[in-house]
Amino acid sequence: MRVQSVEFFYAREPVVTLDADGSQDALIVRITAGSFVGWGECEASPLTSIAAFVTPRSHGVCQPVSASVLGMPVDSAEDIREIQRLVRRNSMDLLQAAHVLSGVDMALWDLLGKARGVPVWSLLGYTENLPKTPYASVLFGASPEETRERGRAMRERGFRAVKFGWGGFGEGALDADVAQVQAARSGVGEDCELFVDAGQAWGSDVEAARRVLPALADNRVSWLEEPFEAGALAAYAKLGELSGAVGIAGGEAAHDVQMAYNLMRFGKVTFIQIDAGRVGGIGPGTEVAAYAAAHGVAYINHTFTSQLALSASLQPFAGLPGSTICEFPALGSSLAHDMTVDRIEVDTDGLVRAPDRPGLGVDIDLDAISDRLVDVEMVVNGETIYRSTSP
Amino acid sequence: MRVQSVEFFYAREPVVTLDADGSQDALIVRITAGSFVGWGECEASPLTSIAAFVTPRSHGVCQPVSASVLGMPVDSAEDIREIQRLVRRNSMDLLQAAHVLSGVDMALWDLLGKARGVPVWSLLGYTENLPKTPYASVLFGASPEETRERGRAMRERGFRAVKFGWGGFGEGALDADVAQVQAARSGVGEDCELFVDAGQAWGSDVEAARRVLPALADNRVSWLEEPFEAGALAAYAKLGELSGAVGIAGGEAAHDVQMAYNLMRFGKVTFIQIDAGRVGGIGPGTEVAAYAAAHGVAYINHTFTSQLALSASLQPFAGLPGSTICEFPALGSSLAHDMTVDRIEVDTDGLVRAPDRPGLGVDIDLDAISDRLVDVEMVVNGETIYRSTSP
Description:
2 copies of one chain form a homodimer.
Chain A: E1 3-12, E2 25-33, E3 36-42, H1 46-54, H2 77-90, H3 97-116, H4 120-123, E4 133-139, H5 144-156, E5 161-165, H6 174-188, E6 193-197, H7 206-210, H8 213-218, E7 221-225, H9 233-242, E8 247-250, H10 257-265, E9 271-274, H11 282-294, E10 298-301, H12 307-314, E11 325-329, H13 334-338, H14 366-371, E12 376-380, E13 383-387
Parallel strand pairs in A: 4-5, 4-11, 5-6, 6-7, 7-8, 8-9, 9-10
Antiparallel strand pairs in A: 1-2, 2-3, 12-13
């Protein structure tokens, strides 16, 4: 079978705020081939990503992503890897390509899994679908009190690990950061694993970042996430030498496998966090997971949006015994909540598993998308090169 | 004065082929502030870059680039650096942002230089505008004979250094690559510096790349450029250990300063090649040039398109005595040739200088752009969020 159509559905909340909440909109991808349908989701700017798919060609290695996808065979895992290779080559100079490829790759794996009647993790070569301990991923509250309440609420929902991030952390006075970390620990209690996400607050400034380390150690924070901008490898490595028991995590911004390898090899992170909606999809995610396993680094998904994104991001390390925790979006938008019929729930044993159903195992709620659909049209020299369709 | 308007002009040749010739289209940026106008050029997919500028917001760090540019003060170099910082922060998750920012940053420097009546290199802190030895940058011919002729033609135009690249180099049999390198040397003669650009042909495969090294050494090729994909730092470093007198060059794909720093620090390249139309503009280019100078790496512009792009890419190292050569686009499209009124010619001493005029010192030929203008309209939920204007 060959890729017959690639459709994009750009959905969003009625109001999109300046919060660092990536679940306020979504770019959902539907691919058809033969009699099968696959779904994916780009963790990316929707309009820009659509443009990257349909744009006119600029030259041989700045082609639209569509040129390497439409009409291509998709009968095997190798076929999907070949599409991946072609997009990387033919769209080398199109920066946004990796982000739109991510959703396309997911949809292709979903489709192939459905065609074969097996879960994606099985197509990836895993023989087991190992449960992971989920950590609730939430933003810091506007005040330490709100952070404490949020931590308490997550414990009440049964989470044994919670991550707090953003909300101005690292951007103001050290005292304010310390108060937030203390509130987080106080809220989740003593017997809960705790992580902190700095959202690249310190650029590449190791001295600024190290000032928060004592408070993190005092409050037994297991890792400090994204202290620096994505490529600041030397700063990552230096902070890692200073951070003692506090691990250093990063990787969500990786838009290819090399960026992730470099963060492990040269940045010396102890936790590598990959968003399948940005790194190029499930295929590249799986390559990074293999590299991490071979180098003693814990692979973790980065997921802050939907259950479709969660399933896709769990696949690359579903069968890896050394990676035992997963990010679980716990406070997303109504869009993120409603857009799938199925939900990946925390099981009674407190653990989370990738679906054991064919493909990604997450059905899409077409009405939920339709209700929030953003209509897009792009016209070039009088010709409509893109017009959004209804799901 | 504040940024009043940012306009984009997407121009292209009547036919855009699959050649690796990036001059077949152009995305030109015009910024107005106060009574001044500045021009820049993105080395990027035009439609995708426009979308990145105007797209609706996705969340706090996935904002359109426009949000950090329009209305901002632009009275000093520090103001431009602040816009740079804001775009990087507010559009952190918008991958294409760096490419559109590049043209915007150029236009801001051009505008500020015109307002002050000084060249951009002076605004950057350089006290001298040092001449550079230009190398003609051309593609390999379709056959060794064509390559030889092209080399001969460049010598007849007076170039003392020539670079050949792409045209399938590294993608077929080793014999074919060797024949191309021999033809290149034969064409340019014995007393000409010669470079070879592999266009990422070998992915991250060091063994594949090393097979061509003897032919490069035999033909006294001074550097092998982009043997690997942009982020393959470990492969770059490894090949550098094996390449003897053949230097390793790379960096054109860097879309932020960290990528360039990493290629020097961890990839151990001996030549760092920065395209101001991709790295984020002239400001980031200058930061990379300073890092290169401090670490004994030769900084070179990457430019394959217009004279506007050439001027912009010369500014970051105009005053650096250690960087003595520059890339000079020698066989571009008619668009690249016609779009500027001014041309940066090779002087009678065989050297090239950044213009000594205010700003970038390159006036735009509005008719040449108008003749090739691509009309673009983007509509979101019935509202036209972008419609191209005439220059």
